[in-house]
Amino acid sequence: QVQLVESGGGLVQPGGSLRLSCAASGFTFSTYAMSWYRQAPGKQRELVATITSGGTTNGADSVKGRFTISRDNAKNTLYLQMNSLKPEDTAVYYCNARWGLFLNYWGQGTQVTVSS
Prior knowledge:
The protein is mostly beta strands.
């Protein structure tokens, strides 16, 4: 059974940092492209950052220079280091695992709130 379990969300002041984790199980983690998405209230879910099975990363323009995606294949865990957080980063953050066109899994999400 595939499971993606996010953790590390919470309330942080503007300019602060958080590190999200996504613990994966039930599939061969190292062979999947892994991504973080987010969805703010009233908005569509958007891609934040992706890391391929080979370790290549890419991120949305809105988070470049502030967020870093990484993975530890030995621990089957995906990370998102978020620095210099802004109120507009407030959203539910989701972990995604994708292999090819038809294998696509989601976590349940973790809330990140940036507010003073």
